[in-house]
Amino acid sequence: MCLGVPGKIIEVYESAGLKMAKVDFGGVFREACLSYVPEAQVGEYCVIHVGFAISLLSEKDALETLELLRQMGSLEEELGEEAR
Amino acid sequence: MKYVSEYRDAALVKNVIEEIRRTVTHPWTLMEICGGQTHSIVRHGIDQLLPPEIELVHGPGCPVCVTPLELIDKALSIASRPDVIFCSYGDMLRVPGSSRDLFSVKAQGGDVRVVYSPLDAVTLAQKNPDKQVVFFAIGFETTAPPNVMSVLQARRLGLKNFSILVSHVRVPPAIDAILSSPQNRVQGFLLAGHVNAVMGYWEYPSLAEKFKLPMVVTGFEPLDLVQGILQTVQLLEANQARVANAYQRAVTFEGLKPAQEAINTVFMECDRKWRGIGMIPMSGWGLRPEFDEFNAEKRFAVEAIHAEESPLCIAGQILQGLKKPHHCPAFGKQCTPESPLGATMVSSEGACAAYYRYGRAEELA
Ligand code: SF4
């Protein structure tokens, strides 16, 4: 229950007074409540917990982290054994 | 999904593990607080890829595992009533109470339903005005915003037949309790990223300072986990007791303000008993008195229940990082996911279930 799953918002609408969204989890679709991230837009990624978006994922931060971690590998290659 | 899958990239994970190997000069014991992370670590074998200096112990961050036995027994008693539709997250159904579980209540004719979201329980209350709908609101800070929204929504809709049975717990008091124990071995914490997505991490610098150890906000994908471990080891090796964030794409220092406001509107801090561990002061959330009409414990007079744990189960020590599942004599023998003796064998986030499922015990034997 506690594992939040990242998904992509593909539709935003209102239901029973709450801001809701249709979310795509890699081909599986679910409804999620957007009350806590009202700024969320179609096309953005968010972490969904028990039917609620609890975090918008920043693509920029994700890509920056990946780049940093990739550099870690290339640094190792460049410096070879001496880096150990 | 674009970048999400890259966080499982094995080559990148290896790079980071190499970096950990280069960084480490001392043996260190780290605790991942969150059961979701325990599951991911054991599933991907991250604990086995790490250099031998680093030991991971598994924390109490599995809501199913720490929900107190007395409350499970209360849930069973309420769920057995003929006028009640009892709604729960799926993982709670097999959690053993003193003598049975929700699953057996259902088998005996109780109306027990698994819901995906607490809002589904509110909808059920709307559709069944002649029944009392009770939602079993358990969890850490991650399920609190959804759970309080069910109450706010029920109030907005004027529902008179909806209530929640609350057993909410919070991470910071648990960390304080673990580190205050004279037997504590933990030297650094991987913080539960999704808890911090909601709460931010402003509650943690005072803890890092008080106990003089580093804490790193960590995500759930393999790459997130090894990166969190790397940052913790770097801080330990540099003798720095502070909080760092290795999960920036999802977590900010302040967290999700609207969610924190909703929690504070509906809940207040209270003492809470943790299954296997005992009472931790101010470690839980309960309903504020203004919301008494939605409080299942007030609505249904449930007599004081005397609950008893299996004498074989050492889950309490496992949840505090003092022992590991394979140290339990009942592990895989009297206790399996099919017939669990303790809650840590039930949920996929429980350490015993993760070790059992991924065959970790045989490898360690
Ligand atoms: S293996 Fe079963 S009995 Fe042993 S600690 Fe885990 S849950 Fe308890």
Helix-strand layout with pairing:
The complex is a heterodimer of chains A (84) and B (365).
Chain A: E1 5-15, E2 18-25, E3 28-33, E4 45-49, E5 52-56, H1 59-79
Antiparallel strand pairs in A: 1-2, 1-4, 2-3, 4-5
Chain B: H1 10-23, E1 28-34, H2 35-44, H3 46-49, E2 54-61, H4 63-66, H5 69-79, E3 84-88, H6 102-107, E4 111-114, H7 118-127, E5 132-139, H8 144-156, E6 162-169, H9 171-180, E7 188-192, H10 193-199, H11 205-211, E8 215-218, H12 222-237, E9 243-245, H13 257-266, E10 267-274, E11 278-287, H14 296-299, H15 315-319, H16 351-357, H17 360-364
Parallel strand pairs in B: 1-2, 1-7, 3-4, 3-5, 5-6, 7-8, 8-9
Antiparallel strand pairs in B: 6-11, 10-11
Helix pairs in contact in B: 1-12, 7-8, 8-13
Radius of gyration of chain A over all CA atoms, rounded: 18 Å
β-strand amount of chain A = 35-45%
Largest interface: A-B, 41 and 55 residues
Which H/E pattern describes the elements of chain B?
A: HEHHEHHEHEHEHEHEHHEHEHEEHHHH
Instruction: Give the helix/strand class of chain B.
Output: alpha/beta
Which labels suit this protein?
heterodimer; A: 84 residues; five-stranded antiparallel β-sheet; 42% strand; disordered C terminus; B: 365 residues; alpha/beta; Rossmann fold; five-stranded parallel β-sheet; 17 helices; 39% helix; binds iron/sulfur cluster
What does this protein structure show overall?
The complex is a heterodimer of chains A (84) and B (365). Chain A has 84 residues and is an alpha+beta fold. Helix content of chain A is 25%, strand content 42%. Chain A has one helix and five strands; from the N terminus they run E-E-E-E-E-H. Chain A has one helix at residues 59-79, and strands at 5-15, 18-25, 28-33, 45-49, 52-56. In chain A, strand 4 and strand 5 form a beta hairpin. The longest helix of chain A has 21 residues, at 59-79. Chain A is elongated, with a radius of gyration of 18 Å. The model of chain A is unreliable at 79-84 (pLDDT under 50). Chain B is of the alpha/beta class. Chain B has a domain at 68-169 and 255-299: 3-Layer(aba) Sandwich (Rossmann fold), CATH 3.40.50. Helices cover 39% and strands 19% of the residues of chain B. Chain B has 17 helices and eleven strands. In chain B, the strands form two sheets. A six-stranded mixed beta sheet of chain B has the order 4-3-5-6-11-10, sandwiched between helices. In chain B, helix 1 packs parallel to helix 12 (222-237), helix 7 packs parallel to helix 8 (144-156) and helix 8 packs across helix 13 (257-266). The radius of gyration of chain B is 21 Å and the shape is globular. The model of chain B has no long low-confidence stretch (mean pLDDT 92). Iron/sulfur cluster is lined by residues 312-315, 318, 325, 328, 330-331, 335, 340-342, 344-345, 352 of chain B.
